[in-house]
Amino acid sequence: MTESHKVWSTDQGPDVPTPATDGTHIFILNDRGVVWCRDAKTGAEIWGGQRVRPGTYSASPVVADGKVYVISEDGVTTVFAAGPEFKILAENDLADYTLSSPAVSDGQIFLRTTKHLYCIGKRDNAR
């Protein structure tokens, strides 16, 4: 890629987790549980340096239903609002090791640890 095709960039990129977007915002989670929200179009920081539960994060964040889901290697799942204000909505400890990113399908979220596969929510049969 040449500089002429670059729209914006940041040096806040993580080593492992891939940023996630809702089309308006980009959510960047670093390996230590620090989160930033940037404008997807301009790259302008909306909020940044916010901390979810300290730990090591390898799984990528997932955006679904106006929420961002992140999970640490220790199995702590944090849910925060996907928007211009950092607001933690929930935190749950699965008490097991995980490297897997959450997966979302038909109104359900799937979380995999070394010992279990969790499915949360009812399947949306309207599709």
Largest beta-sheet details: 4 strands, antiparallel
Number of discrete helical segments: 0
Mean pLDDT: 92
Instruction: Report the span from N to C terminus.
Output: 39 Å
Q: Percent of residues in helical segments?
A: under 10%
- The amount of beta strand, in percent, is 35-45%
Report low-confidence residues grouped into runs of 5 or more. Answer: none
Specify the overall morphology.
globular
Query: Helix and strand succession?
Result: EEEEEEEEEEE
Question: What Rg, in angstroms, do the CA atoms define?
Answer: 15 Å
Structural class: mainly beta
Count every beta strand, where a strand is a DSSP E run of 2 or more residues: 11
List keywords for this structure.
127 residues, mainly beta, four-stranded antiparallel β-sheet, 11 strands
Task: Give a written overview of the molecule.
This protein is mainly beta. It starts with 19 loop residues before the first strand and ends in a 7-residue tail after the last strand. It has strands at residues 20-21, 25-29, 34-39, 45-51, 62-64, 67-71, 76-81, 88-93, 103-105, 108-112, 117-120. β2 (25-29) and β3 form a beta hairpin. Helix content is 0%, strand content 41%. Strands 1-2-3-4 form a four-stranded antiparallel β-sheet, with no helix packed on it.
Brief description of this entry?
This protein is mostly beta strands and 127 residues long.
